């Protein structure tokens, strides 16, 4: 029988299953949103605008919502965010059914749901170390990411493509149901997931934001991770913003293959999530990060050169493996390094930088694709990622960070 000291707690599984359910709906609606945008226009800049709107809230609101995650009850914030997202996708589904959907509606919903996500993600990331003992964080993050990859990238996108073919509004309706299911599961969490009254900072929000920013910047390894991931996300978002056009115009396959391509990304992500604890024990944090960066650079470069659909699926799988192995080890390290009463602020500052650049990346993807062609976006991503790795990896590969 498994020792209770090595068993992940029930409240962790409630939050994990809530995320899995929610990501299934989000994977379906995300694919459907891209297909809906491509059905409305083939202009790269216009399609990329949806990605800009979904990334902009991280730049505008992440620091403030992260501070609120340290002040408010994190459980309540999470289920209320789920309800708010359900309402917004219900509105989008109605506009599609009534024939009133357009790029403006897509952009508004993308902006609104992403704004809610800035609070939900800060609260959920801050809550996880409160639900799991520190020695089990790698395992917990591995299970968490594996589940969300399985549904959000492997099952959700094909479901979204299939459902969009049946009825364009159906994937958005499925996302409404998934958010409601997630809210119900989070309501069942019994563990206290907020900073203690003694630890909570009750000064002004601006001062609290500054405390989180200073703490993050003074931490050498987390600072290097922020710089690396910020540039990585900038470049990666450029490719994601035009990926649906890459499928249609470079690989010359039908819209349904877009979901299959994302499934290749998911299979790799699932493998990377599962392998991450093993890799960290053997290679250390710096070794895993260096390996994932090198693998990603090679895969993006080859994507710029290929026109064969199944090779593209394989390369997206390698990118998924690298990205989610990186995510697991970096998330676990953040959970180990950041004090509970600062987690919302530090995580939001981390994501303010790393996700705040996504609208810029999405816009750059559209501009580069329009000026130089779709393959140039992937080549530029490889070059930019290689350049930032040269600057940041020495701080990480030289760090003496033992696995818990």
Automatic annotation (TrEMBL):
Pfam family for this entry, one: MFS_3
Major facilitator superfamily (MFS) profile domain location: 222-404
Cellular localization per UniProt: Cell membrane
Keyword field: Cell membrane, Membrane, Transmembrane, Transmembrane helix, Transport
Keyword Ribonucleoprotein: no
Keyword S-adenosyl-L-methionine: no
Membrane topology label: Multi-pass membrane protein
Superkingdom of source: Bacteria
Transmembrane domains' residue ranges: 46-65, 144-164, 170-189, 224-245, 257-276, 283-303, 309-331, 352-372, 378-396
Protein name: MFS family permease
Organism: Petropleomorpha daqingensis
């Amino acid at each position: 029988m498994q020792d209770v000291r090595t068993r992940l707690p029930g409240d962790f599984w409630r939050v994990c299953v809530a995320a899995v359910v929610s990501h299934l709906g989000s994977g379906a609606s995300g694919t459907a949103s891209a297909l809906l945008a491509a059905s409305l226009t083939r202009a790269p800049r216009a399609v990329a605008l949806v990605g800009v709107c979904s990334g902009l809230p991280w730049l505008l609101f992440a620091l403030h919502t992260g501070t609120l995650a340290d002040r408010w009850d994190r459980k309540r914030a999470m289920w209320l965010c789920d309800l708010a997202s359900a309402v917004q996708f219900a509105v989008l589904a109605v506009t599609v059914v009534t024939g009133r959907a357009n790029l403006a509606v897509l952009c508004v919903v993308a902006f609104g749901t992403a704004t809610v996500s800035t609070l939900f993600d800060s609260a959920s990331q801050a809550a996880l170390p409160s639900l799991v003992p520190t020695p089990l964080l790698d395992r917990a993050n591995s299970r968490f990411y594996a589940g969300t990859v399985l549904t959000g990238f492997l099952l959700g996108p094909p479901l979204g493509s299939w459902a969009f073919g049946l009825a364009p509004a159906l994937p958005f309706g499925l996302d409404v149901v998934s958010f409601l299911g997630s809210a119900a599961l989070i309501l069942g969490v019994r563990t206290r997931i907020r900073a203690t009254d003694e630890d909570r900072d009750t000064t002004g929000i601006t001062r609290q934001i500054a405390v989180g920013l200073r703490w993050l910047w003074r931490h050498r390894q987390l600072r290097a991770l922020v710089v690396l991931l910020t540039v990585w996300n900038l470049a990666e978002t450029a490719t994601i913003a035009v990926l649906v056009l890459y499928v249609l115009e470079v690989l010359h396959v039908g819209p349904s293959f877009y979901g299959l391509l994302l499934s290749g990304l998911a299979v790799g992500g699932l493998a990377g999530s599962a392998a991450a604890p093993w890799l960290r024990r053997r290679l250390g944090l710096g070794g895993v990060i260096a390996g994932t960066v090198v693998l990603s650079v090679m895969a993006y470069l080859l994507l710029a050169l290929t026109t064969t659909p199944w090779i593209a699926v394989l390369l997206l799988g390698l990118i998924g493996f690298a990205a989610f192995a990186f995510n697991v080890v970096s998330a676990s390290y953040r959970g180990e390094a950041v004090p509970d009463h600062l987690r919302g602020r530090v995580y939001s500052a981390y994501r303010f930088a790393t996700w705040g650049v996504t609208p810029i990346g999405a816009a750059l993807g559209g501009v580069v694709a329009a000026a130089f062609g779709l393959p140039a976006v992937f080549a530029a991503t490889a070059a930019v990622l290689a350049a930032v790795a040269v600057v940041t990896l020495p701080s990480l590969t030289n760090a003496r960070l033992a696995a818990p």
